[in-house]
Design brief:
This protein has 292 residues and is α/β, with parallel strands linked by helices. Helix content is 35%, strand content 18%.
């Protein structure tokens, strides 16, 4: 289980079917405050939550996972396993292996869907949740754009080309300068041994998504399962994944939901925004006090 980094420990945990899952572990396991589990978006990995984890880990333990088929976790030989049911089981094994009984899940996009599924499948393990730019309905236009991005021609010749690719598909990301874009690129792609830049995920993760295009999936029951825990929903003001009408409906059906809109940002906010951190810190304090 792990080599040590300056800011975090690294674990490699075996899933139920033997795949190695990579987890970053920030803070102290001896801390009694609610553990935070960070779950990334569809093509993303644990690197996305580094700044957030550093913000939180002085008071609590923070875990950040690479799903199977992403980052430093193993790729699955069977693409049919790249589905939320498998990811929830992977999360269950990771928490058990690390001795965590309850966690507050911070989930971006796919990570938020997994948080909703956890509320239904393993409710006693969920201390609260922050859903980042995702809800019970996914905008078709936004999903189409993500599919096109995942199907774009590879490899790329260098990091400048990688940055250009990201700017083309995600012009509304909150990146201030070249260094911000480069950091995002390094969390998205990896350099092969031959020097080419390629996706830092298994291209097969797209197959289950393509097989469901055109089929309406009702996530509202899973969202409603979150009703008993401290809950935050964050939306990028320019998001093409979480529409404004869906965001408003979420508040109507879940009166205890706290919502934050990050103006001028598309899919998805970084979660390092001041207004997001203030609300998250408050909800974590509630989770600490109430045991929910």
């Amino acid at each position: 289980m792990g080599e040590t980094n300056t800011d975090f420990s690294e674990h490699r945990i075996r899933s139920q079917d033997g795949l190695g899952l990579y987890v970053r572990d920030y803070g102290s396991a001896a801390n009694s405050a609610t553990v935070v589990l960070c779950l990334p978006g569809l093509t993303r990995n644990s690197n996305d939550f580094h700044a957030l984890a550093l913000h939180l880990c002085g008071q609590r333990r923070v875990l950040s996972l690479d799903y199977r088929g992403r980052g430093r976790s193993d790729y699955d030989h069977d693409w049919r396993h790249y589905i939320p049911v498998t990811y929830v089981n992977d999360v269950r094994h990771v928490l058990a292996a690390l001795g965590v009984q309850r966690a507050f899940v911070v989930g971006t996009s796919l990570g938020g869907i997994i948080a909703m599924a956890m509320a239904a499948a393993m409710p006693t393990s969920l201390a609260g949740a922050l859903l980042n730019d995702v809800g019970p309905e996914i905008s078709a236009a936004g999903l189409t754009k993500i599919i096109k991005y995942m199907q774009a021609e590879m490899p790329l010749r260098d990091w400048d080309a990688a940055v250009a690719r990201l700017k083309t598909f995600f012009p509304d990301r909150l990146a201030q300068d070249k260094e911000d874009w480069l950091q995002m690129a390094r969390g998205t792609y990896r350099r092969r041994k031959d020097g080419a830049i390629v996706y830092d995920w298994d291209v097969a993760i797209l197959k289950p998504i393509l097989s469901t295009v055109g089929h309406k999936i009702d996530l509202w029951p899973l969202f409603l399962a979150l009703g008993k825990v401290p809950l935050v929903a964050v939306r990028g003001g320019l998001s093409d994944i979480l529409s404004e009408p869906t965001f408003h409906r979420m508040a109507k059906v879940m009166p205890r939901l706290t919502q934050v809109t990050v103006a001028g940002v598309g899919h998805a906010p970084t979660l390092n925004e001041t207004e997001v951190l203030e609300v998250l810190d408050g909800k974590l304090a509630v989770a600490d006090r109430t045991g929910h």
